[in-house]
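Quick one before lunch.
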Amino acid sequence: MESAIDSRLKCPRTLSRRVSGDYAPPFPMFVARGDKALQQVVMAYFGVQYSEEGKRPQALAALGHIVESFGLADGPVRHDLTDHVDNQDHHNLMAVAYWADPAAYCRWLRSDDVRAWWESQERLTEDFGYFREVVAPRVEQFETLYAFTEDFPGIGGVMGQCSDEIEEHGYWGSMRDRIPLSQTDRLEPFGVLEIASGDPAVGGRVIVRGHDNIALIRSGQDWMAAGEDERALSFDEFLPTLEAGMVFLQESGGRAGCYSNRFVRSIDIDIDIDIDGNELDGSYNIGHWRSLDALKRWAESHPARLPLFVMFLRAVTSLENLRFYREVSVSDGKDQTFEYINCHPRTGVMRDAVIPAGGERPPQAVTRSDKAEQTWASCSWSSTWSFQDPGTRRAASLQGRRPDIRPQPRPHHPPGRVSPGTTYTLGMR
Ligand code: HEM
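Model of the protoporphyrin IX containing FE complex:
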């Protein structure tokens, strides 16, 4: 038995754990471990959105293009694909990609092919929408949890190694206790979601500015290798209950602090053979929440979520090939990107983003360029958008720094670690 927090990320606590030192969890769970070189990761959700079934072949081809671009230099370490219908009955295909190094992500993002494709005028005239929702948490800002020890999905697959049985699980609040930064930081949200550019009601390109400590959860199950009994358990018990919770979050989650909730089915495409988007035996929830607290409050209190915990406790000792897992991160506002092209206004975190104080709707960004710099431990990048002034129709530009960026390095970095020195600025010129 060991702590969920890797020894290299341990530090003297200024905030206590939710349980006492002699707590023993009721069943075994594990976390992923990464090597020392892993300092900060990138979790990127690239979406293609369409409204009518007839557009699926082209939408799959667009997703195929995104997947192909992963093969370029500095592409992601791993990715998986999903399909879901959203709160407005639009279909959404997503490529979910993970990088072990934000500098590599920056280089990939800035490569000619990737940038030209995203910035092309063609993206604005196609029959579907696109989005990119990207967060880059440092290693002390995320946790994982698995009821199994091999072939981890998601970020665990990037980290590559598995812990021994861990102590911090099986009680409410254990999610927070597994996040290394929670030793010294309450991980509270700062700021609000704001429209940085564009107008969701009009469409076109929209950029949403995030804020510190948005929580992102990926909570999944796969039954790929499960036998009949476990499939029955999954289809007859877990999934119907889970779906009730997902419907609640999709329709009313905003009141609970959930900015965006997607319940997705894993799919496969083989760009060399066909692009069918065949369903795989796995599904997961992707949720963006205002804060870790809001997520925890919902998980520990909502009538559609609680039975899952009880069902899991009943089943856990006999589970063989029905696999449950979770990853939860918080991230700094400066390490988040939310961009939409011709998506409906309730897509992703755009739904809850407000027009900044002052009331003036920001002009729509027409081009964007990213500047990446490699530092010893991490990467800094800044983004520049050029605009067309909506009044004069002349090219214009804006420059400014996010007012709510908290100073780096943070005061609470665990000792023994130097701050990554990331200097991302969401600069507009
Ligand atoms: C079949 C689906 C699910 C099952 C079986 C399940 C089961 C569980 C179990 C057993 C735990 C306690 C884990 C531990 O610490 O040992 C847990 C915690 C948690 N679950 Fe779920 N869950 C499911 C879906 C979800 C979904 C969809 C969400 C979010 C939208 C969610 C959010 C959470 C959160 C936030 C916690 C941590 C609470 C805390 O530590 O304070 N779960 N779940």
